[in-house]
Amino acid sequence: MDAIFNSFLGFDLSVFEWVQSIQSSFLSAFMVIITTLGDEGIIFIAMGLVLLLTKKYRKVGFTVLVALVVMLICNNLVLKEILERVRPFYLFNLDGLLADKQAFVDAGRLGKFDVMVEKIKLMTEQNPEMAAKWMSTYHYPGLVDKLTSFSFPSGHTSSAFAAAIAVLWYNRKIGIPVTVFAAIMGFSRIYVEVHYCTDVIGAAFAGVVYALVAVLIAKFLFPIADKIMDKAFSVFKKKDA
Known about the structure:
Elements: H1 2-7, H2 9-22, H3 25-37, H4 42-52, H5 58-83, H6 94-99, H7 101-106, H8 110-126, H9 128-137, H10 155-170, H11 172-191, H12 197-240
Helix pairs in contact: 3-11, 4-5, 5-10, 5-12, 10-11, 10-12, 11-12
């Protein structure tokens, strides 16, 4: 898989160059807010819970939450760990990675650190021209903290699209603006330069798949969950009466 990722490095670097050309203090502040909203998927979890509390949109909320669980398992626990793509701010930058070793120790990810060290050494040996070009062109802006996890696919983007498509499946009126927000979320990850453009594109497609899987799961599980929630809410109403 590394060979496939490497074949797109020229494209990814070109996107970063374009992003650097449009960066401004206002846009940077806005993108940091957007990208922070996606940390740990909190905004999408909150959206799912709010929808879940309303009878009219309960199935939508249920599907959103299921999509996020599917995303967590498939995206963050499986794909990232299998594909092991090095983040752009460490790519070809062994000195930078070594300088941040303590962050990996503190996060309990020393094993990932060792993997990245070997990958960076190998990639630099195999792609000396790209290594030189990347190191002279890519400059991490430091708008958000560096991450110790692997890069592909983007968790923020995949959770955003998983939630958005789950909403869009049932309600276009709400789903379209949520999908637009998901696209902005994806772009914010490129803008703050913690993900390659190809990470975001791959994550968007993955998010759609997670949402469709969630729709299938909801088809069978929601009737049961709906009855349980009806009973639970009726108990609360009786207590309040």
